[in-house]
């Protein structure tokens, strides 16, 4: 998977980050929206985004929501509700704003398959051992497009960035 050292993820596209330093670069904790706020804003997006000089919306709660659903229900919900909300956000801001999902445990839950760059989500109890193919669900297996976010040369990935989901 390609790596990204640029800060473009802070201003455009959709990212899934799990590094606290990365999250702190784009928002204060008080600016983070709940997943519920994000889903309720579809079709009624604010003129001004809460973070990073009106360039970024950070959303928390995706992890916990996925853990509450069966893998089949989580896949359907991601593909219907969450993807529709991401697409609505992209359309509203014409690709000129960043949507960031804060996944505090993402470093151990998001897995990239090195041979194919496929991205999966590892389910937790009681569905441990199951996986969600989030690359297929959210970006239609366009695996050449997501990039690993690096905060500095040689560091571990802080998250994943996708410029535009279609």
Structural class call reads alpha/beta
Oligomer: single chain
Report the count of strand segments: 10
Tally the structural domains.
1
Helix content: 25-40%
**Uncertain regions: pLDDT < 50 for 5+ in a row?**
none
Major sheet summary line: 7 strands, mixed
Average pLDDT metric: 95
Shape: globular
* Biggest sheet strand line-up: 1-9-10-2-5-4-3
Cα-based radius of gyration, to the nearest Å: 15 Å
Share of residues in strands: 15-25%
- Termini separation comes to 19 Å
Quick tags:
single chain; about 170 residues; alpha/beta; 3-stranded antiparallel beta sheet; 10 strands; about 30% helix; globular
Tell me about this structure.
By secondary structure, the chain is an alpha/beta fold. The protein has one domain. Helices cover 31% and strands 21% of the residues. The protein contains 6 helices and 10 strands; from the N terminus they run E-E-H-E-H-E-H-H-E-H-E-E-E-H-E-E. The protein has helices spanning 20-26, 35-40, 62-68, 71-92, 106-109, 134-139, and strands at residues 3-4, 13-17, 33-34, 56-60, 98-102, 110-112, 119-122, 131-132, 147-149, 159-162. Strands 1-9-10-2-5-4-3 form a 7-stranded mixed β-sheet, sandwiched between helices. A hairpin with a 6-residue loop joins strand 6 (110-112) and strand 7 (119-122). It is globular. The protein starts with a strand and ends with a strand. The mean pLDDT is 95.
């Amino acid at each position: 998977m390609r790596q990204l050292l640029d800060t473009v993820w802070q201003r455009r596209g959709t990212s899934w980050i799990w590094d606290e330093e990365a999250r702190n670069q784009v928002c204060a904790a008080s600016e983070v929206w709940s997943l519920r706020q994000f889903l309720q804003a579809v079709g009624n997006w604010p003129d001004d985004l809460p973070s990073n000089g009106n360039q970024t919306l950070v959303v928390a709660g995706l992890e916990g929501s996925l853990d509450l659903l069966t893998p089949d229900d989580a896949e359907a919900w991601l593909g219907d509700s969450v993807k529709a909300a991401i697409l609505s956000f992209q359309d509203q801001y014409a690709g000129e704003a960043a949507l960031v999902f804060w996944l505090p445990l993402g470093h151990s839950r998001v897995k990239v398959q090195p041979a194919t760059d496929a991205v999966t989500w590892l389910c937790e109890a009681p569905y441990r051992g199951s996986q969600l193919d989030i690359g297929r669900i959210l970006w239609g297996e366009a695996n050449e497009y997501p990039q690993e976010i690096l905060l500095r040369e040689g560091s571990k990935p802080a998250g994943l960035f996708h410029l535009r989901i279609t």
